[in-house]
């Protein structure tokens, strides 16, 4: 064992971890630091892959593999003057650690690493491997980088550390980004009758969208279709009737929805408008994008990240829930309202996946983001309890001092 497993050391490591700004594609320093800490803690293998994900393994004696995973990238700080503290200063006051990435979600990753390391003294009792991973680019591509990790370690169970207020999350709505483009005909705005205004065509489309009825799930809630941006071309349109108008929609998905089923109602609106108005032309599609990783490699994907949910009666859910209760936590069964990396492990690959982490969802991405220090202790206790339940029922792990 390398570093001492104490709450003070965990907090210090969290303070240092959040000191590195790390918007998507800029996680290099955070990744290097996480690798350094896992080596110091005594992980058997630690590496950074070609996308920049940091992965550490504690090797047990059995064949089971549990992956504890969170993302290292954070949203940016648009206006630091709005913060009451330095967002990268690791300030502690009133029992809270403040800073960008405290709640979403570097402190969870560090707590996972410490919890995993507590089993190093009893590795011979582990019925499999414990893997901890910090991934890149989650803020814009939920689950894509996690898929890269899954390809390398092939886990039997995934624990996501996104904030749950120490409850057990067993599902989430997914997310799709849809772009609709309406096409017109440019003309001088002094003679608009000679053209077709693409913005006005979009207004017709949006009026129809408002009438759509979306599905509802009795656990995850309502599907959502929300307009998030709109712009015309050319822009600025100086005395020109716009020939194109692009609108982007955020679509929150429910279990069972596919790319085709999500696009179909919008395509039907477009088709119906075209039948009624021969000048109406539109295109509906999922957004596809590619971004550069800090390693220089490229990550590309459609922006379609499926929903997922499990039953309280699923055996791994029941075992995890019981482990949390036995640890003294008063955890409840819950679900995420936002999209997480579970879209990959559970939504696409059907790998048993649960969410458990410190802090609450509403603190993600906000000014004066923070995590309660007591929640870090609770998260540590919860991760240890779940790992012990699945891999080391009779082991004597090392607890935090």
From TrEMBL:
Keywords attached to this entry: Hydrolase, Metal-binding, Zinc
Location of the Peptidase M20 dimerisation domain: 170-277
Swiss-Prot/TrEMBL cofactor(s): Zn(2+)
Superkingdom of this protein's organism: Bacteria
Molecular function terms, GO-annotated: hydrolase activity; metal ion binding
A UniProt-annotated Pfam family: M20_dimer
Family membership: Belongs to the peptidase M20A family.
PANTHER family: ACETYLORNITHINE DEACETYLASE, PEPTIDASE M20 DIMERISATION DOMAIN-CONTAINING PROTEIN
Name assigned to this protein: Putative selenium metabolism hydrolase
Naturally occurring in which organism (per UniProt): Orenia metallireducens
Organism lineage: Bacteria, Bacillati, Bacillota, Clostridia, Halanaerobiales
């Amino acid at each position: 064992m390398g570093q001492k497993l104490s709450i003070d050391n965990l907090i210090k490591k969290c303070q240092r971890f959040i000191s590195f700004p790390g918007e998507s594609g800029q996680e290099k320093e955070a990744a290097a630091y996480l690798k350094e800490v896992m080596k110091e803690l005594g992980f058997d293998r630690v590496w950074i892959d070609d996308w920049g994900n940091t992965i550490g393994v504690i090797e047990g004696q059995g064949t089971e593999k549990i992956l504890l995973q969170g993302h290292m990238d954070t949203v940016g700080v648009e206006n630091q003057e709005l913060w009451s503290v330095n967002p990268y200063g690791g300030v502690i006051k009133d029992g809270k650690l403040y800073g960008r990435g405290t709640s979403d979600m570097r402190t969870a990753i560090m707590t996972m690493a410490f919890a995993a390391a507590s089993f190093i003294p009893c590795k011979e009792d582990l019925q499999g491997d414990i893997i901890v991973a910090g991934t890149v680019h989650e803020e814009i591509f939920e689950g894509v980088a996690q898929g890269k990790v899954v390809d390398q370690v092939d886990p039997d169970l995934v624990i996501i550390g996104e904030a749950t207020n120490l409850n057990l999350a067993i599902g989430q709505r997914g997310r799709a980004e849809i772009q609709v483009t309406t096409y017109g005909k440019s003309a001088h705005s002094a003679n608009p009758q000679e053209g077709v205004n693409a913005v006005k065509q979009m207004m017709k489309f949006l009026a129809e969208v408002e009438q759509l009825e979306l599905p509802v799930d009795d656990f995850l809630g309502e599907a959502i279709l929300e307009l998030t941006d709109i712009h015309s071309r050319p822009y600025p349109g100086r005395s020109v009737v716009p020939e194109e108008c692009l609108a982007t929609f955020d679509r929150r998905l429910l279990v069972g929805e596919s790319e085709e089923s999500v696009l179909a109602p919008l395509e039907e609106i477009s088709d119906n408008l075209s039948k009624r108005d021969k000048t109406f032309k539109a295109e509906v599609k999922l957004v596809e994008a590619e971004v550069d990783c800090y390693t220089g490699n490229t990550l590309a994907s459609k922006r379609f990240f499926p929903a997922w949910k499990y039953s309280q009666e699923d055996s791994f859910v029941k075992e995890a829930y019981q482990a949390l209760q036995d640890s003294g936590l008063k955890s409840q069964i819950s679900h995420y309202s936002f999209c997480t990396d579970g879209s990959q492990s559970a939504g696409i690959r059907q790998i048993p996946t649960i969410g458990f982490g410190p802090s609450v969802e509403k603190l993600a991405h906000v000014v004066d983001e923070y995590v309660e220090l007591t929640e870090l202790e609770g998260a540590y206790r919860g991760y240890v309890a779940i790992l012990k339940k699945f891999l080391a029922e009779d082991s004597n792990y090392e607890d935090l001092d």
